[in-house]
Structures are given as structure tokens and as C-alpha cells.
Amino acid sequence: MKRICLMVWCMCLLNTGFAQTPHLPPYFRRNDNLNRELKKIVTSLGLAGNFDVGEDGIEQISLAVIDLSSGKPQFAGVNADNFIYPASVYKMYVAAEIFHQIYLGEIALDSTIVVTFPNIVDKTREISHDPRPLLQHGDIVTINYLLDLMITRSDNSAANCLIDIAKRERINAMLQLYNWHGSEVTRKFLSRKYEDPGYEKIRGTETCALHAADFLYRVQTNQLINPWVSMQMKVLLGRQLDNSKFACGLPLKSMMFHKTGWFAYWTHDVGIVDDGEVCYIVACFLPLRESQALKIYPELARQVDQLIHKR
């Protein structure tokens, strides 16, 4: 198994220098009408153009919606195959591999680790109303505690610890298994000067709405590795503390199982939306500062949700 993971990781390294074009999986049906309506929404909200993201140049939105309400999953997107910096969204890929290793019996939810430098990077709590203290050098914590911090509060220190436990080679072997080429986890959440040997100059992590949406589709349908891993992921995503983005524009009856991410020019929300009547996946990557994106997300969510309900 280790040899297979190493071979896959070597292939990942060979492919990290250029973006790859993702292909729509055969279990999705591209819905032209849904696609047209989604593009209208994006255009009406001023999200259809190019955005200046500083030294990274020009970026575009990456958006995917999968309607799961009836029959074969209906897919629509706007630049859904556009690779973009995911901020903290890729922490859900890390969590999936951690759950995989727990299922295999290699580690346990109640296994403890000692938190050490340089993984300690957070200076403030990402969710200010969460009372849990910042991780400190020498803290002894469980994997379960780290998972919850990483997903629900988007804690970067917890993510660094879990990336070390899961190992990037194995996280990426899982991503490659589902053909999510180009979405490999290459970086931890720390300065390059503190990166592990071999990772100091590697390209930054990227993903696209298609891959994130496909990941969540597998979570929802119990096909991410196996039903146990899928259900553990859904429970964890359902405890998200940041509901300031896409989730804040949904009706009160809706439940969103999701992961958000925000940093500099990027503000994202990806998740499963279910209100008992309709169920859909949304993966929205906005190349906007959080202060700008928070003004748009409520209306974007309202219109997308109405679009799905009208179908």
C-alpha cells in the first residue's frame, strides 16, 4: 500500500506544474437549462467577469451546482473546471483521509498527539464566538478534537497537525482515486520556510468547483471511500460554525453541511443543502475579499435555492 501511495504521489508531483482540465463524471447529467439559469444569476450579480487577485493576476469564479432532488444528478456550472486557490476548503480533503485511516484501524478518534512548533500558526480564533482556546505548543489533544477545530472553526494549527498525521502522499492517493487531478494537497498552512523537505517550492494547493462538488456528492451518497467515512464527514460538515456566506441566504428550514474558506482575495463556501423537499450540492469559489463577498452571498444563495425549487 505504501508503495502504491508513493507511486501516485510521484505522479502528482510531475503534474503540479500545470493545470489539468477536469472531465464531468458519467454519473452526472449536464442540464443545459439549469446551466443557462445559473449563468443568468451569476451575471446579474456581477460575478461573470474577471477579478484582480493581486500578485496572482486575474481570476474567475468557479461555481458548480448538482441537483439531487430526482433521478440522475443534474449538473450545472460556471467555470466549474477553473482551478482556484481554495483557502480552507481543502481541509475537507484532509479530514476524509483521516477518517479513512481511522476506519482502517491505523489511528483512532481518541488517539492523542502533542502539538508542536511550527504547526502552531493561529494568532486569533477564526470564529470569534467559539470559546475554545488557540492551540499552544505542548498541548495534548485528541484527533477528534483536531478534526472538529479544523472543520467547524477552520483552525489552521489543527489542519497542520492533521496533515502531518494523514500524510500528503496518502491524502493525494485518495484524491487521485477519484480522478481529482490538480486538486492535490501540496501545502500546509504555514510559511514555506517551515515546510517539510521537498515542499518548500512546490506550487500552492488549488481545486475547482467540479472536484469539490463531486467530493460532496460522494459524501451525500455514501460513496466517499465507504459509507462510514462518508457519514462521519457529513456529521462533521453539519457542525460548521461559519454560516456567514452561502448558508446565510438559505431559508431557516434548510440544513447546509459545508466547509467555508476565506483568505485575502478568496471567499468560498461548498456544501450539501437539504430542506426535506429538495437536496443539492453547491460549490462556490469567489475571487473576492470577504468584505465584498459577504454582500453578495445572501442573494446568490437565495436565487440558487429558488432555482432548484422551481425545477
Describe this structure as you would to a colleague.
- It is a single chain.
- The chain is of the alpha+beta class.
- It has one domain: DD-peptidase/beta-lactamase superfamily (Beta-lactamase, 3-Layer(aba) Sandwich).
- Helices cover 37% and strands 16% of the residues.
- The protein has nine helices and ten strands.
- The chain has a six-stranded mixed β-sheet, sandwiched between helices. A two-stranded antiparallel ribbon has the order 2-3. The chain has a two-stranded antiparallel sheet with strand order 6-7.
- A hairpin with a 2-residue loop joins strand 8 and strand 9.
- Helix 3 crosses helix 5 (156-166) and helix 3 packs across helix 8.
- The longest helix has 21 residues, at 290-310.
- The model is unreliable at 1-18 (pLDDT under 50).
Say what the CATH topology is.
Answer: Beta-lactamase
> What is the chain-wise order of helices and strands?
HEHEEEEHEEHHHHHEEEH
Distance between the termini: 45 Å
Proportion in helices: 25-40%
DSSP summary: helix tally: 9
Mean pLDDT: 94
